[in-house]
């Protein structure tokens, strides 16, 4: 049930608004002046705040400014002495809306509903940002990771194509997402394509789209990943597994900034930044004629090599704490301690699966351990792959 605060020095106004809004199933708090209202704002969460402008001790415009320092809740200003200039000033100061007295109750209810929708959208956006931040946070201050961060910061604002190399599980996707987030295309889409997971006969349809009837199951027109990523970033993960036929079409798309859908004839302009990643030695793949050298040179304007975990063991304690905190919170557990001996055991492990393997082990420890995580727990569970 939405909670609303009414700040007004007129008792009759407060009582009338309370009666109407409680009938509409809102929870209502009220305050007779700005200072009392600010106390309530600091103590409670409100979906919307209604605030009079003309009040003793502290006028509504001043209260509005102080509210904005405490909460993002929308504030609707109410006044019986208002002018157009007053309304404009209130809106400039961040008010959601301005309503004159005597209050038109129908208009107030509509404005309240809209304000509550806006308040909930703000809360959902904050939650989404927190989730994205936790999911894609880059953890570690070792020298190899600082070099990666420095390279990302220098390259991200440019339009340069980037080839990210590194073993499986090192976090190549994480680097790609940071490149996108720090780029001028961050407001655009981030489209990820796992080239190893798509059958060779479907990769071209996925990348470039297809026209209706171009093959048996093409029952409607489909826009491919290049079109869907327009204005943003296209991340070609495991590009070393892409077929030679698809490679030639990707090369053409990069050269001409145009694609043609499967079964189509029309050239479609595309505006994407391509970031690619691979766990393979592409130069060896070129020698073995599994990868086009000209495509490699198109993709590798900048090469970022993500270090394996064994080369950044000093980052393991921070990674363990990061993953463990997330898993415990997700399971409703209190934060778990990790003994110094357990940390050393984790640092000594080979981690052939890199960050992905460490993350799996930490999740296993969070689920199966009840007390502080010990070295014995690490030896027991780290080998269960």
Secondary-structure map:
Elements: E1 3-7, H1 11-23, E2 27-31, H2 34-43, E3 48-52, H3 60-70, E4 75-79, H4 84-92, E5 97-100, H5 105-135, H6 143-155, E6 162-165, H7 172-181, E7 190-194, H8 200-208, H9 225-228, E8 233-237, H10 244-256, E9 258-260, E10 267-269, E11 273-278, H11 282-287, H12 293-299, E12 302-305, H13 316-331, H14 340-348, H15 354-368, H16 375-381
Parallel strand pairs: 1-2, 1-3, 3-4, 4-5, 6-11, 6-12, 7-8, 8-11
Antiparallel strand pairs: 9-10
Give a quick summary of the entry.
The chain is of the alpha/beta class and 385 residues long.
Tell me the number of structural domains: 3
> How is the biggest beta sheet arranged?
5 strands, parallel
CATH topology of the largest domain: Rossmann fold
Overall radius of gyration? 29 Å
Low-confidence stretches: none
The N- and C-terminal alpha carbons lie at a distance of 47 Å
CATH architecture of the largest domain: 3-Layer(aba) Sandwich
Share of helix among residues?
Answer: 40-55%
- Overall structural class, as computed from helix and strand content, comes to alpha/beta
For the record, the CATH class of the largest domain is: Alpha Beta
Q: What is the H/E order? A: EHEHEHEHEHHEHEHHEHEEEHHEHHHH
Question: At the fourth CATH level, what is the homologous superfamily of the largest domain?
Answer: P-loop containing nucleotide triphosphate hydrolases
Number of strands: 12
Total helices: the number is 16
Shape: extended
Strand content: 5-15%
Side by side, the strands of the main sheet go 2-1-3-4-5
Determine the mean pLDDT. Answer: 88
């Amino acid at each position: 049930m939405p909670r609303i605060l009414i700040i007004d020095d007129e008792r009759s106004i407060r009582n009338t608004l309370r009666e109407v809004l409680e009938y509409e199933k809102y929870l209502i708090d009220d305050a007779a002046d700005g200072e009392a209202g600010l106390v309530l704002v600091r103590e409670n969460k409100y979906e919307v705040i209604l605030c009079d402008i003309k009040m003793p001790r502290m006028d509504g415009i001043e209260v509005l400014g102080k509210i904005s320092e405490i909460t993002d809740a929308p504030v609707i200003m109410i006044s019986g002495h208002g002018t157009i200039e007053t309304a404009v000033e209130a809106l400039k100061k961040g008010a959601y809306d301005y309503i004159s007295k005597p209050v038109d109750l129908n208009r107030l209810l509509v404005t309240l509903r809209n304000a509550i929708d806006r308040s909930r959208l703000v809360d959902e956006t904050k939650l989404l940002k927190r989730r994205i931040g936790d999911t894609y946070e880059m953890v570690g201050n070792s020298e190899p990771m600082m070099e990666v961060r420095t390279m990302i910061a220098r390259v991200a604002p440019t339009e340069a194509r980037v080839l990210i190399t590194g073993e499986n599980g090192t976090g190549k996707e994480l680097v790609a997402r940071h490149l996108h987030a720090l780029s001028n295309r961050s407001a655009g889409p981030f489209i990820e394509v796992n080239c190893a997971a798509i059958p060779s006969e479907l990769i071209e349809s996925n990348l470039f789209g297809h026209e209706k009837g171009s093959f048996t199951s093409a029952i409607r027109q489909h826009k491919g990943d290049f079109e869907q990523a327009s204005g943003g970033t296209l991340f070609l993960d495991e590009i070393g597994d892409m077929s030679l036929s698809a490679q030639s079409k990707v090369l053409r798309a990069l050269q001409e900034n145009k694609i043609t859908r499967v079964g189509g004839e029309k050239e479609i302009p595309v505006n994407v930044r391509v970031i690619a990643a691979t766990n393979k030695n592409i130069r060896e793949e070129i020698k073995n004629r599994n990868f086009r050298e000209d495509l490699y040179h198109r993709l590798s304007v900048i090469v970022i090599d993500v270090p394996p975990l064994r080369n950044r063991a000093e980052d393991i304690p921070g990674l363990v704490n990061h993953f463990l905190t997330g898993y415990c919170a997700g399971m409703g557990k209190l934060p778990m301690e990790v003994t110094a001996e357990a940390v050393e055991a984790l640092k000594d492990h080979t981690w052939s699966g890199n960050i992905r393997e460490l993350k799996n082990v930490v999740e296993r420890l969070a689920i199966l351990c009840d007390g502080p995580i010990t070295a014995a727990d690490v030896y027991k569970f780290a080998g269960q792959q």
